[in-house]
Amino acid sequence: MIEERAYWLAWAKISGIGPIALQKLKQQFDTLAIAWTATPAELGHISGFGRHKVEKIVEERSRINPEELLKQHIEKNPNFWTPADSDYPRLLQEIPTPPPLLYYRGVVDSEEILGITPTVGIVGTRHPSEYGRRWTRKISSILAKSGFTIVSGLAAGIDTEAHSACLEVGGRTIAVFGNGVDMVYPRENKSLAEQVVKQGLAVSEYPAGTKPNSKHFPQRNRIIAGLSRAVLIMEAPQKSGALITADMANEFCRDVYVLPARLDDEKSYGCLQLINKGAEVIPITMDRLLEMLGAMPPLDIDVGESSEQLSLFEDKKQTSMPDLEPMLAEIFQHISSEPILLDLIIQKTGLSSGEVSSSLLQLELLGLVTQLPGMRYQKS
Predict the structure, then answer these.
(1) What is the CA angle 371-282-259, rounded to 5?
(2) Is 226 in contact with 91 (CB distance < 8 Å)?
(3) Are 66 and 155 within one domain?
(4) pTM across the whole model
(5) What is the pLDDT of residues 260-317, one digit of tens each?
(6) How far apart, in Å, do the first and last CA atoms of the chain sit?
(7) Nearest to 152 by CA among 118, 127, 176, 168
(8) Is 134 part of a structural domain of the chain?
(9) Given the DSSP bridges, would you call strands 201-204 and 173-176 parallel, antiparallel or unpaired?
(10) Hey, which of 14, 101, 196, 265 has its CA 20 to 30 A from 5?
(11) Do 201 and 86 form a contact (C-beta atoms < 8 A)?
(12) Complete DSSP assignment for 336-380
């Protein structure tokens, strides 16, 4: 595994090789270590790898020793993951452009890494109205109290309100940087960033010392969307970067919710466009929002009258268990309308991967379960 992560790093250092090209290399050669020794002719068989690109790869890789590069890199960047690492976030493994290197700083939560803890992205304009700030703080704090991890970008405005409201109620938050995790942008959020790494996590695909760059932030937004099971757009004008996050979330099959606003409110024109494209409107009552996100509030949270309490991501309407063989019934009870990873089913049942895979196939044939991309399953 150490060897393979060295090759993720080495390939990422070659100019012109980004997340998409890396996925093509992995698909073609199975591992990036094998791809590193591929001949020019073998590389040329990959779609998009023309003669000029292949020549550049061969030239640059001849000057790189992957193992030595890894040792040198760790000296300045001791904490980072690659897709070859077991603790690389599972939700990012699902997207078509996972960052080849993900640097982190703060407190790592294994249940977040495995995709067990529900995560919600909250983003919006850097210049929100009082209305946008108020609802962002209210929603962020309620979700945090209900066990959700809040994901945002530490930008001024909506991002700042989302992170700070979450932290104030003792919740966990993930801040995705558009620069190295050893730097803070904007500077006025330095104190907030320090709180984030004490109580949550800061992540970035850029190494230590990387300064903020306007080109980095659209790329950063895909990580926010990728780490979130749903994304809430609070306020966004027509050219807001939050709309990029919404587009990425749609591409990654994440749910997108929008805070409703006045038709003549310029700060929300982008939100209105998203509603026209089919985005869900954030409901007025908090218990309804939690229900839509797959959770009901704990009894000590005052978010409206509700007589029942459900576990995170369970169906509100309970259906009777079909008459199944014991092993099939055991597996089926861990599957809901919310997609679940194969590895999590194996972990929850304690059965072998072969037993679970075989049982899932039988449940599919019975029309009870549907397989989704990324080895995820949900009730049909």
Answers:
(1) 125
(2) yes
(3) no
(4) 0.76
(5) 887 778 888 899 889 888 898 888 677 788 888 875 334 344 444 333 332 333 333 4
(6) 36
(7) 176
(8) yes
(9) parallel
(10) 196
(11) no
(12) -SS-EEHHHHHHHH---HHHHHHHHHHHHHTTSEEEETTTEEEE-
Q: Which residue has the tokens 């007025």?
A: 284
Would 297 be classed as within a structural domain? no
Q: Report d(CA 340, CA 362) in Å as an integer.
A: 17
Number of neighbouring beta carbons within 10 Å of residue 18: 15
Query: Measuring CA to CA, which residue among 301, 292, 157, 309 is closest to residue 229?
Result: 292
User: How many structural domains is the chain composed of?
Assistant: 3
Contact criterion met (CB below 8 Å) for 194 and 98: no
Query: Could you tell me if 281 and 264 are in contact, meaning their C-beta atoms sit under 8 angstroms apart?
Result: no
Tell me: do 106 and 60 sit in the same domain. no
Per-residue pLDDT tens over the stretch 140-184: 999 999 999 999 999 999 999 999 999 999 999 999 999 999 999
Q: Residue 260: which residues within 8 A CB-CB, separation 6 or more?
A: 271, 275, 281, 282
C-alpha closest to that of 93 among 362, 312, 344, 294: 344
Task: Let me know whether 278 and 336 are in one domain.
Answer: no
Please check whether residues 109 and 242 belong to one and the same domain.
Answer: yes
Distance CA 238, CA 61 (A): 43
Dihedral sign, CA of 31, 208, 122, 106?
A: positive
Closest among 70, 86, 81 to 3, alpha carbons compared: 70
Ramachandran assignment for 211, one of left (phi > 0), alpha (psi -120 to 50 degrees), beta (any other): beta
